[in-house]
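**User:** I keep going back and forth on a fold encoding question. It is easy to fool oneself when nobody else works the same problem. Could you pick a protein and write out its sequence and tokenised fold? Could you put it straight underneath, so I can go through it closely?

**Assistant:**
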Amino acid sequence: MAKQTRGRYTPPTPKTEKHSPYWVPVVMTTAMLSGLFVLVGNYLNMLPGDAQNRYLLLGLALVTGGFGLASTYR
């Protein structure tokens, strides 16, 4: 009997896995925690000045940057 071949190509598994540099999880965690502290500090009026939109934007930008790095983490 002849061996039947499948219709789909399965690529071989890579010999080495790619890993993110060490700084990626460090910067990701630092950005997310810093953004969280800025947001909480803004709402508790612990930051200088009144509750301002620039603190909210800074906190959201830091958290978003942390999530952006999390999507590239391997």
Summary: The helical segments are 23-43, 53-70. The CA atoms of residues 17 and 74 lie 9 Å apart.
